[in-house]
Amino acid sequence: MIFKMPTRYFLSSGTSEGYMPLNAFDGALLQAGIGNTNLVRMSSIVPPHCKRVAPIPLPPGALVPAAYAAITSDTPGEIVSAAVAIALPENEDQNGLIMEYSAKGERQKIEDTVRRMAEEGMKLRGWPIRDLQSIAAEHRVEKVGAALAAVILWD
Amino acid sequence: MIFKMPTRYFLSSGTSEGYMPLNAFDGALLQAGIGNTNLVRMSSIVPPHCKRVAPIPLPPGALVPAAYAAITSDTPGEIVSAAVAIALPENEDQNGLIMEYSAKGERQKIEDTVRRMAEEGMKLRGWPIRDLQSIAAEHRVEKVGAALAAVILWD
Amino acid sequence: MIFKMPTRYFLSSGTSEGYMPLNAFDGALLQAGIGNTNLVRMSSIVPPHCKRVAPIPLPPGALVPAAYAAITSDTPGEIVSAAVAIALPENEDQNGLIMEYSAKGERQKIEDTVRRMAEEGMKLRGWPIRDLQSIAAEHRVEKVGAALAAVILWD
């Protein structure tokens, strides 16, 4: 293996305004408690036997594998939302599946969509679902805003 | 070095329909045999002396460095294709180059383009080509579809 | 930790024409001295006590964590620029922040913007700035061109 296998994960979300879209994204990461780390984006699996934990304070600057949905907008008044869902299989020797979705619109609709996406992914695998977890964030843009939802893998 | 050096690689491709674009992408990954891993996208080199192997069953949830081309579409009837090419140098102490390309259109055209891209990349380096490898996938969209072609690095 | 903590970093930039946008990007990476590595993109922190060094020759094919801004264009005559900035805190036990920005337009304007972005990011953290570093590249497109600016983490 090139990289170590993650053994723990947590869910986190945030929103922010910012000077530029990347500043708003940075602010949303900070609110989510992961703004001082180096997120390495990946697609998008929870390893078997990887345990959900409460958010962990991560070492500043650490390289951290993460799956996340993020959206930025510079249209004042626009509502944007980001959500992630995790579907975990009944058979704990199989992996879980992470889905990400972000779009204009209210949190409930975006979160419903991403949960359905995770269910569809498990249906495609033919794996019954033991648990379906999700987190979402909604933001009404003032000038430049961002919404973020993330699954952080750790060991 | 921050990460371990890859020593083996394989090529893989897939296509799928899905509930949402990310589901179609997930289905294409599954068809390609890499749907239960965490792909970490990188740009886009085969290390010297890295050996091509037949597709390897990867541990579920493993973090896997990969270069890939992917395209999704929700336009029924549209044909989309994705392709990757690897140009390997005559001097085996030098690295190979991976190119990715995806677009509307038929597989042959997309694959020809990505092969040419890899040739141009080696020309830019002034390195004669020992071998040119490629893989491609074409998909005609029903509702929401995806095509994917990937180079997976492993050790 | 899943990945090793970076201890050194350097800044680098490049521009290029190319057969396709990805070839122009590849050429810009080569000019920047990082074209034969596997960049793993991350968001976007310099760890505490990570030291700036002169550009290091990296092992071909190595997986290298990097934060970068890149822009490609196929509009002849268009000027495109890419820039990164790093704001380092007075308190050396805290991490630095990397910001990336690329857009149509001249280097000076893009670099000014990205420096301001890094300042705003530190203001959001409430951390006084000890040093503000940046690098930028500007390219006038002939046929297909790219500009790139990067922060490379290493150990």
End-to-end C-alpha gap of chain A: 15 Å
According to DSSP, the number of beta strands of chain A is 9
Mean pLDDT of chain A: 97
Largest interface: A-B, 33 and 31 residues
User: Which shape of chain A, going by the Cα principal axes?
Assistant: flat
Describe the overall structure.
Three copies of one chain form a homotrimer. Chain A has helices at 21-31, 107-125; strands at residues 8-17, 38-43, 45-46, 51-52, 63-73, 79-89, 96-104, 129-140, 145-154. Chain A is of the alpha+beta class. In chain A, the strands form two sheets. Chain A has a five-stranded mixed beta sheet. A four-stranded antiparallel beta sheet of chain A has the order 3-7-6-8, covered by helices on one side. In chain A, strand 6 (79-89) and strand 7 (96-104) form a beta hairpin. Chain A is flat. The mean pLDDT of chain A is 97. At the A-B interface, strand 2, strand 3, strand 5, strand 7 and helix 2 of A face helix 1, strand 2 and strand 5 of B. Strand 2 (38-43) of chain B pairs antiparallel with strand 2 of chain C.
Features of this protein?
homotrimer; 155 residues; alpha+beta; 5-stranded mixed sheet; 4-stranded antiparallel sheet; 9 strands
Brief digest:
The first copy, chain A, has 155 residues and is α+β, with helices and mostly antiparallel strands.
List the SSEs and their pairings:
The structure is a homotrimer of 155-residue chains.
Chain A: E1 8-17, H1 21-31, E2 38-43, E3 45-46, E4 51-52, E5 63-73, E6 79-89, E7 96-104, H2 107-125, E8 129-140, E9 145-154
Parallel strand pairs in A: 1-4, 2-5
Antiparallel strand pairs in A: 1-9, 3-7, 5-9, 6-7, 6-8
